[in-house]
Amino acid sequence: MTEVTDEQRALLRRSAAQSIVLLRNEGNLLPLDATKIKKLAVIGPNAKQRLITGGGSAEVIPLFVVSPLEGIEHAFGKDKVTFVEGCRCMSTSVF
Fold this sequence. Notes:
Helices cover about 25% and strands about 10% of the residues. It has two helices and two strands. The protein has helices at about 5-20, 70-75, and strands spanning about 40-45, 80-85. It has a two-stranded parallel sheet. The two termini are about 30 Å apart.
């Protein structure tokens, strides 16, 4: 496996962050300020899923994968985040 430098990791992180598209950011709610958040609820079974997609020429094999819940817990602290499954998925297959 090829070693990723800190500079490459920073570039990849900036690229990923800048590629996120928001539908609407009413009242400038986002990005959330971790210093102002007391508690944060994450609801839904897919929050724990580490899913990557792509196929054919679009396939990318990442060095590591983080679930939405893991990313949120890292950004805000596990003590501030409450996870609730909310509902159950009928199938674990993507298609």
